[in-house]
Amino acid sequence: MEIVGACFAMRNGVVGVGVGARAYARGNGEQRKGRGGTGATGAAKVSGISGAGESRKTPTRGKRMVPNASERTHVSNLSAAATKELKHWSTRTEAERRDCAATKIYCNRSLNMNRIDAIGFDMDYTLAMYKPETFETMSYNETVKKLVSAYGYPKELLESFEFDPNYMVRGLIVDKKRGNVLKMDRHNYVKVAYHGFTPLETEERLKTYCETSVRQSFSGAEYSALDTLFSMGEAYLFSQLVEAKDSGVYPVLNRKDFMQMYDEIRAAVDLCHRDGSLKHAVAANPEHFITADSDLVPLLKALRASGKQVFLLTNSLWDYTNVVMNYLIDGKIGADKTLDWLNLFDVVLTGSGKPGFFANDSATIFEVDTVTGALHNTDNGAPLTPIGSVSDVTHKEALTSGLRATGTGPAKVYQGGSYTHLHAMLGVEFGSRLLYVGDHIYGDILRAKKQIDWRTMLVVPELAHEIECLQKNKEKPHALRRLRTLRDSLDDQVARHAWLAANADDSTSNAAELARAKELAATARTAHREGMREYHKSFHYVWGQLMKAGSQNSRFAFQVERYACLYTSHVRNMWGYSPEKIFRAPADMSPHDLETDEDFHDFDPSVLKEPGRAEEGEHHG
Ligand SMILES: [Mg+2]
Known about the structure:
Helices cover 36% and strands 14% of the residues. By secondary structure, it is α/β, with parallel strands linked by helices.
């Protein structure tokens, strides 16, 4: 999501009322863009004399005032104050970073930070890490209330339903039509499937998803991807309602199909944001919902001191952004809020309507009055003087400085627009000169990388747990790979002996060998299957390892590898790396590259008889 609460959201140049950009966080494909706002433009506080149509010209490079990369201060030639900000970057050695794998930045595609002119951040679940046990639980509880009050669901649900924030994981797909939740590998092969909270039998899973006449893309209106941590509550609620409907206890649920129930959950979530209940709760008590982070300010200061521009690009609107950033940067809430945090950024763009922001280069951009929240028309980002505001010094200055100011002082705040406006404000010519850090594989990363060639870093908070489990089970993956190779070899032996038994002249002499091979192959299969099941359970009791499905990379891991140049568990991990760091991707490995690895050809079936080896064994689903 991006939280916008009961406020206004920009979506492809349209000012609307409602949950706005949160809708972009869900579902698959372009259909996501349609959810949310009601398009009630009359509610927006837009001033200025220029109509939207007049401000849709492509921003001109001539207006930028930001220096080129070559004109900006190089990191090795900084002032004493800036050097102080950067000192921390040199205090951790590579060896120390290796010792703390959970805080490393991992590289899929090599990236030279010297060639990055601007670094941007998403806000929700990127800079601002919400506490699932409080924020997601509140969102879940409010959604159940809305289902009862607005959609006629049984009021008993208020008492009987309870949220488990640890149950769902990212990367799952909800089959809205059948009431199932799926985990698949990188080939979209469904490895694990649950109907409500009940696992599908293997035959049913294969028949429904794997042995079909048409290859399923899992991207239509019948499916919804859990791409963001904000989706966990609604997916969990859906599984609960599927179970409740199947129980037959609630007559009202008999009149609804699974798809309708899912869509009503989504609508109820949207209602929660539209009436501001979540936003006001966070504003009143941010420390209850958001994890404070003392590393954030020094990190942002150091990035700017290194000569790079820093921007905030969020789908949340100004009022909520100001609440969250005040708490994160200054620990301020309520009337104590200030605009000081804007000094840490070169540009702040709210209500951006990602992922449409990365595609729609004709979207209208407004300047936000940071005091009143009013939106002012701009000339492609360059502020216009609104009627009645001729004495406004800020706007006079802005008019003389073009799209962006000089790199000093507080950032101007905008709403809406597109990547073309942002490129002009930052003075960057190519998308590859920007690094964008976000948590949403679809809304922040996929489209930014695919369509405008931004360099990307995905924040994967789950990575810390994933790495911790990998370290605890350090020996298991290798042992399981060997066992799998042995299993495959024994299966080949069975096939060969079976063919000889059926076709060779001395078929009797092969019968014993066939029986022996069958026995060993069955033992190996069981051992591998059980081993994999136990291994995956050590990561998550239902869905197993986030980045794997069986022995293959999961669909989520595939997307991370394909679209995120870098990925890490937390933004603060950037603090451990020089702004001149050259991230290098590991060498690619193809199946035939493993052919020369003797370790995987040194089979010994006797391992199957060794005590304690029975736990090694195929996938967990
Ligand atoms: Mg986010």
